[in-house]
Amino acid sequence: MRGGSTFLGELFNQHPDAFYWFEPLHNYQLTRRPPHISPDFYLFSQGSESSTLTSEELQAHLDIVTKIFSCDLESLPMYIFADDFFTSWEVPKKMMKYRTCMDGTPTKQTSASGAALGKLHNFNRIYNLTPRDLRTNDSAIQRKIESTKDVDFEKPEKVNFVFPFKVRSCLHLLEEPCRTSKVIAIKSIRFAAEFIPHLGNAIDKVIHLSRDPRGIMNSRSDRDPIKRVKEILCDHMLADINSRRKQAIQNPNLFFPLKYEDMASKPLQFAKSVYNFIQLPTSNETLGKFVALTHQKKDNGPVGTSRKNSSATASAWVSQMVPWKKKLVTEACAETILQYGYT
């Protein structure tokens, strides 16, 4: 979305008491929508004031998030682990042992299961099963594959016939740090604020991150048509802040509203504020690692977290955005800009 959430996620990735999961709903979206569709279009469409997900899709979102918060990772559908973010990108620190295991040589049993079941014409259905479903013999797994639904998504290069059985073997290396961490944090741009009440006691705190729509659109590629900015971005933002305000009446301590611009300009101050909100202890080492990301020798790409000057990155749209685009977004998103307190 280009709103700074990956940068915010580093607060949890860098903290030794937090277990951090990056975009766990990404692959679910890919099983339901064509690749490369904007998460805003996925959650909202045609200027709707509430999410247009079906009840089945909403329940899937809630199930995935709840299972991660409870560290019931064996009950997650296998396609969650077959995500490009898991297999190709740099994973969060507490997932590195799992990633090393997954990138290693498979055991004989793992290879044998992959070779035997990979011959099935409907083997792809295995990604609708869970790691727990695979903790049985190959004959029982075959029956489960044949009885479940088809699932389709773009598979990374590492996702082959052996992959599901490697997940079965390596998953304990994710479960252990999850269960021993004081805080479990999920970063997601695919979870609308209106979904949060459905989580009940499964969630304690929510950090609602925002960024000036003009800054977001300046950072996005031309693939997202700027003339449709209201429906592809600002309606979603407006729906989220309206839902947050309604929920805050009943639960005033649930949300921490945070502007990317504030965090980027004063990273130490707002890092301390976020840690205090979620009741995580701070240390000079942890804070130093996060603040260091804002003063690197060079930026590490458009979706990276390291910046030469994070404050300059946040406000770059002011000088970089061509006048007609700036005027278009300002007018189309006037209500959103007002409600979030931008000028």
The total tally of domains equals: 2
Helix content: 40-55%
Strand content: 5-15%
CATH level-two architecture of the largest domain: 3-Layer(aba) Sandwich
**What is the end-to-end distance?**
21 Å
Count of individual beta strands: 4
Low-confidence spans: pLDDT under 50, at least 5 residues?
Answer: 297-307
Strand order of the largest sheet: 1-2
Overall 3D shape: globular
The helix-and-strand class reads mainly alpha
Name of the CATH first level of the largest domain: Alpha Beta
Radius of gyration: 21 Å
- What is the typical, i.e. mean, pLDDT? 90
User: Which fold name corresponds to the CATH topology of the largest domain?
Assistant: Rossmann fold
- How many helices does DSSP assign? 19
Main pleated sheet: 2 strands, parallel
Query: What letter string, H or E per element, gives the SSE order?
Result: HEHHHHHHHHHEEHHEHHHHHHH
CATH superfamily of the largest domain: P-loop containing nucleotide triphosphate hydrolases
Layout of SSEs?
Blueprint: H1 5-13, E1 18-22, H2 26-32, H3 39-43, H4 55-69, H5 84-87, H6 96-103, H7 108-117, H8 138-147, H9 163-170, H10 172-180, E2 183-187, E3 206-210, H11 213-219, H12 229-250, E4 255-259, H13 260-265, H14 267-277, H15 284-292, H16 310-314, H17 317-320, H18 323-332, H19 334-339
Helix pairs in contact: 6-9, 7-9, 14-15
How would you describe this protein?
Helix 14 packs across helix 15. The longest helix is centred in the last third of the chain and has 22 residues, at 229-250. Strands 1-2 form a two-stranded parallel sheet. Mean pLDDT is 90; it is low at 297-307. The chain is mainly alpha-helical. It folds into 2 domains: 5-73 and 179-339, P-loop containing nucleotide triphosphate hydrolases (Rossmann fold, 3-Layer(aba) Sandwich), CATH 3.40.50.300; 82-170, no CATH class. The chain is built from 19 helices and 4 strands. GO terms for molecular function: N-acetylglucosamine 6-O-sulfotransferase activity. InterPro entries: Gal/GlcNAc/GalNAc_ST, P-loop_NTPase.
